[in-house]
Amino acid sequence: MRDDSEVYVGIDTSKLHHAVAVAEDGRQGEVRFLGEIETSGPATAKLVRKLASQYRRLTFCYEAGPTGYGLYRQIRSLGHDCIVVAPSLIPRKPGDRVKTNRRDAISLAKQLRAGDLTAVWVPDPRHEAMRDLTRARQAAVEDLRRKRQQISAFLLRQGRLYEGKTAWTRTHLKWLASQKLEHIEQRIAFEEMLLAVRQAEERIERLAQAIRAAVPDWSLAKGVTALMAMRGIDLISASGLLAEIGDLSRFQKPRELMAYLGLVPSEDSTGDRIKRGPITKAGNHRARRILV
After folding, report:
1. Is 189 part of any domain?
2. Which of residues 172, 194, 220 is at a domain's end?
3. Which of 44, 60, 97, 102 is the most buried (most CB within 10 A)?
4. CATH number for the domain including 104?
5. Residue 83 domain-assigned?
6. The model's pTM
7. Full residue range of the structural domain in which residue 154 is found
């Protein structure tokens, strides 16, 4: 091992195996594919030890995705640098139509060496747990919306229209309970749909209670309280927003936060012509949806 040796390691992650490639330091540094390893912790530790015995400094990267941040935290715990890359910001050649694990790993290693990759913010385990909880409630809200839509579509097929102003109020629920369908099969289906809606509502309330119980012990509890001072933001909305964004102090300017949320206008300007379009809708769509 040379004292000045450095290598950049690109990992293309998947469910069962990781493809690994390395790019040695320097414009003419060797780039090679090392092969695939299992996704287990011992296999990753073995790879890191092997590379550490050959190079003084190791820098790892992989794309953010369904495999989460466990690989990042393990590599960091072993004393090496690692970044999780934003997939949408990875430079890609327009004419490149071949995609394999090997090519992706090599491309990550080369782009990491060139400094062309953009890292995402990685939450700590406690923050990630809070994010999982708030996302579970968001998923439950979406599930409730779909189940309500199923009931509305079912009654529409039967020619039954609610004449009130607002659906899913107490008056609307009484109207639903008063519906008498001709066939027993339809009555059974309708009752099951109503039961599914009640269960979804109970699920949302349980998750909301869990969020309220978890916030006081959260590192961003003060931020939640501060956001609640703004009109239209309650504890659930504030918790969900900070769970997605993280500590707001990591943004130097409001413009950075707005760009992160995709709330800045797109632009296609050239020469003296300035053309701005709709918002970019880049970044975290869940946080943007909460704000909207």
Report:
1. yes
2. 220
3. 60
4. 3.30.420.10
5. yes
6. 0.87
7. 125-220
Specify if 53 maps to a domain: yes
**Residue 236 CB burial class (10 angstroms; 0-12, 13-18, ≥19):** buried
Query: Do 122 and 69 meet the contact criterion of CB atoms below 8 Å apart?
Result: yes
Is residue 270 very low, low, confident or very high in pLDDT (cuts 50, 70, 90)? confident
Pick from 290, 145, 141: nearest CA to 206: 141
* Tokens read off for 248: 């707001």
Q: Any idea what the Cα angle at residue 262 is, between residues 259 and 265, rounded to 5°?
A: 80
Q: Which amino acid is at 269?
A: S
Alpha-carbon distance of 292 to 286, in angstroms, equals: 10
Confidence of residue 274 (pLDDT cuts 50, 70, 90): confident
Compute how many other C-beta atoms are within 10 angstroms of the C-beta atom of residue 282.
17
- Secondary structure E strands in 25-145: 31-38, 57-63, 81-85
- Domains in the chain, number: 2
Distance CA 119, CA 69 (A): 13
